[in-house]
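Issue: ligand-bound run for NAI - logging full I/O for the record.

Environment: standard queue, default settings, no custom constraints.

Inputs:
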Amino acid sequence: MKKTCTNIDQFMAGLRKRNPGQEEFHEAVQEVASDVLPFIANHKDYQGECLLERLTEPDRVITFRVSWVDDEGNVRANRAWRVQFCNAIGPYKGGMRFDETVTESVLKFLGFEQIFKNSLTGLPMGGAKGGSNFNPKGKSDGEVMRFCQSLMTELHRYIGPDKDVPAGDIGVGAREIGYMFGQYRRLSHSFTGAMTGKGISFGGSVGRKEATGYGVVYFMREILHAVDDDIKGKTAVVSGSGNVALYCIEKLVQLGAKPLTVSDSSGFIYDPDGIDEEKLAFLKDLKEVRRGRIEEYAEKFGCTFKEGRPWGVKADLAFPCATQNELNGDEAKSLIDNGLLALAEGANMPCESKAQHLLRKHVLYAPGKASNAGGVAVSGLEQSQNSQRISWSLEEVDKRLQGIMKDIHGKCIEHGKGKGAGDKTDYVRGANIGGFIKVADALQECGVF
Ligand SMILES: NC(=O)C1=CN([C@@H]2O[C@H](COP(=O)(O)OP(=O)(O)OC[C@H]3O[C@@H](n4cnc5c(N)ncnc54)[C@H](O)[C@@H]3O)[C@@H](O)[C@H]2O)C=CC1
Ligand SMILES: O=C(O)CCC(=O)C(=O)O
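Outputs:
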């Protein structure tokens, strides 16, 4: 019987050859394979069916043109994708990203990560991701609406509550989901939960907007409790000022921590007095309503604005919540030299591999597929509520979210406790193996396809 190749160099050479130039995808697979291949080598049950080879090949990649008309009457064209990676344990599930940096490689890395993340939540969701190189920044509401409607005119053929359920990600918030869902409803002539992150007035779940940011802080609380410590009184450096960052800050403030920074693509602010509820309200208005630049915070509250990234600021905890590869090896070293205790990723793959390596060795380090799973978990709860045509209260959703983050932490402990440097828990290994097992079991039990 042909066995899974368990040599990482050989495995990666094959993957690179089949996916030339897709750097982000290579990086994401390398991280998972370096834990999963040794696991397979030690577990006969998982050796026979080329499981990781199959899991690194998407079920399908749908690529299409999106034509739309701007406010001046010019016809514009963008490219969009939906990467349906693996539906072994449930309908495809994952966000849509609108940003000029979106490529097939970026969406393959995100869709691949989503397989393991969704498995860790314990909910029946497969892995997918989609998006477009359309940049919503600086576009009018009318332009964004026409773009979203045009995109959904093609995408609607491939999605549905039992097939594939997209949601938001970078550049896709409540406004974009509303426009896309509205078009889906029109074209499908039905009202079903084919998307999550919907507005509360049309089938959304309370708590979804807050879920990723709250979830990452709940996960950090578990990490600290496991070493008899607590979040209260800790200082935190946070990057980003979008959906994940804002609600990460909100939960940090609620739990008595002191967030010191936020950033956007123009730079970061450092507020040594800490961001409190009043300052957060200003930030939410700035970013969610006015869509302004972060420098305005510094002008309003008299603190520092700097170009670049916030990782030189001394803090106990770090939460990268902006985008992939936003923290390099030198920046990780600077955080560690400044006495960092723990880092939990709010974004997907924010730490470059050199940074990951150092963080894994020196601090408690939680990878996004575990620590930012709260968003997709509450999306899963939104799907359940839609199927049953009921709405849970915020208390109910938040209680479930906290339970899910605790369970994910438990899986990381189960597969990673004592496996890291100095007998620390290796959360990366824990998440990779914990996520892999359920999907691998399902693949084996459903026959080869
Ligand atoms: N929204 C969600 O529920 C989830 C999001 N994520 C991940 O979290 C990260 C942030 O997503 P959202 O907050 O939803 O997006 P968002 O669009 O609301 O915010 C993104 C933030 O990142 C900043 N940013 C983007 N590119 C940047 C760059 N090159 N340099 C510096 N800053 C940059 C933006 O200024 C903005 O503050 C992404 O990696 C996303 O994949 C992960 C799990 C769920
Ligand atoms: O809620 C969802 O389906 C999407 C979440 C997501 O894109 C992510 O976890 O990165």
